[in-house]
Here is the input.
Amino acid sequence: MSGHVIILGGDGFCGWPTALGFSQAGYDVTIVDNLSRRKIDIELECESLTPIQPILRRIKAWNKLTGKTVDYVNLDVAVQYHKLLTLIEDTRPTAIIHFAEQRAAPYSMKNSFCKRYTVNNNINATHNVLAAIVESGVDTHLVHLGTMGVYGYGTAGMPIPEGYLKAVVEGAEGPKEIEILYPANPGSVYHMTKTQDALMFYYYNKNDGLRITDLHQGIVWGTNTQETMRDEALINRYDYDGDYGTVLNRFLMQSVIGHPLTVYGCGGQTRAFIHINDTVTCIKMAVENAPKRGDRVQIFNQATETRTVRDLAEIVAEQTNAEVRYYKNPRREDAVNQLQVDNTKFLELGLKPTTLGNGLMQEVIDVAQKYIGRCDTSKIITDSLWSKEMEVDTRGSSTPYEE
Ligand code: NAD
Ligand code: USQ
Here is the structure.
């Protein structure tokens, strides 16, 4: 395996282990990141539970350990178009992996500044990459991290297909089968930007023949991969706060510090999950199975299992004796939904899913235990609300809110 990959957002939670995974596999890697996520830590007065090192120190530690070089370019993909274009022209990458977006749904709903920042950043970043690939003339493969949330989590009565939906429409000459992009149904401003990304991919693929893979990823859990575990200076980010912490990693950290598990509503929300190891594996599979020129946008569902939030809380409580509490849901979402996800494409490529039953929850608990002194408990309860009428619930209840 060889070639050059540019990793946009390579300093982030998914991007950093992906960068090391590709470097380990023999690729030349260039990380692009404007460190905006680290700046949001300062804005929110909250840090990763794990002590992540500055980007150049991380890269130096990797080089010292392995002899491998990873390049780093600080640029804002949403703003510094010409710097991005020059980088693509100079490096002529095999693939560009695009993680460089504001990814927290609660942060995107916090206030109008955060809504506008999320839209400006995410949509301009994606459009700049597309326009720069066209202008450069480089035949590269764009691999984008999208989200399961583009589909909504509606009870479709069938597994959510991989991007495209077969539909029967009433034509002039009777019923006709067509295939359309699965209808977009975003649940936050953040998720809305991902549905816009999908349209931009559709257009640039149709108009310019760009080769694009959109990975509709579920909620990522875990912290470390084989590579980030090799030295403390390589440790990955662990978000636990009410904006950036995702549900399973939050529950695991809460169980360690003795905070009740913060189930929103009745916990009947079903979501799709994937372990960070599988994120890296899937992205490698996507890069190595690029669409050919002329193929439509390739869409994979990048998730390995679905669970309700209540199930997750029960599993964590059973393993750790944590208390489960129910909080008024700060989000506007269905109290209960079913969700089945078709992930045949990655399974056919050989993915062996890491599920909750594989014992890796203990590894996350161990990481949380090690760094628990860094936790600011005042950041656990979210104050990001989906609408003005909602209230922050700091106390919770021992019984679920109505379904
Ligand atoms: P993250 O916030 O940890 O990483 C994103 C990185 O991109 C950060 O390092 C940030 O500084 C950088 N960035 C953001 N905007 C940029 C810009 N304009 N220019 C340059 N760099 C920029 O997020 P993550 O958890 O690693 O998520 C990465 C991608 O995967 C996101 O697009 C997200 O939507 C998607 N995703 C994440 C999850 C998850 O559970 N974490 C699940 C599904 C999809
Ligand atoms: N939830 C709780 N308690 C908590 C935190 C969350 O009950 O303490 C619930 C939420 O209400 C929601 C579910 O858990 O129903 C998932 O929330 P989350 O914060 O773990 O995940 P989400 O907001 O959906 O976003 C995350 C990533 C995002 C990615 C998305 C994939 O931050 O970048 O796109 O997962 S997906 O959910 O499949 O759309």
